Amino acid sequence: MGRGGRAGPWRPTDGRARVPPLAEAAQALARFADRWDPRDPALSSRGRADWDRRTGCFASPPAIRRALYPTNAIESLPAALRKVVHGRGAFPQDASIIQRLSLGLHHVAKQWTQPMPEWHAALTQCVILFGERVQV
Fold first, then answer.
1. Are residues 82 and 39 part of one domain?
2. Do residues 67 and 129 lie in contact, with contact meaning Cβ atoms separated by under 8 Å?
């Protein structure tokens, strides 16, 4: 579920991260500014200055947003490696921990070759939006 097991605006209680629609992202930036502007006004001003450049993903349909959002794969690697190491209390040699992590990486890499869920829906949306630029 993320750090501390808490749910947040981009991490629902089911543990799956998601990219919010544009309106939700704008509301989240406003909430962030309300909370942090008294301490450090420069934080939200930086977010607002780059808002137009950063919102391209938010304006896309949900299927494309899920395809573009890589956080699940990025966040899952350290968690998978911790799980591999957590099974052993101590390692007698450095080579044994390296071997264990290597096998864990091999196991995790198998998941990366699996097709993305709902890829067909994302591809269909790309064809609709970008037409000839998407070769199927």
1. no
2. no
* 94 vs 118 pLDDT, higher one: 94
**Are 125 and 76 found together in one domain?**
yes
Do both 47 and 70 map to the same domain? Answer: no
Name the residue among 123, 84, 125 with its Cα closest to residue 101. Answer: 84
User: Residue range 123-136: average pLDDT?
Assistant: 85
CB atoms within 10 A of CB 30: 12
Phi, psi angles (nearest 5°) of residue 11: -135, 90
State which of 22, 40, 60 marks the end of a domain.
60
Query: For 9-33, how does the pLDDT look when each residue is reduced to its tens digit (9 = 90+)?
Result: 544 455 555 667 778 888 888 898 8
Domain with 75 in it: 65-133
Query: Distance between CA 29 and CA 27 in Å, rounded?
Result: 5
What is the value of pTM for the model shown? Answer: 0.46
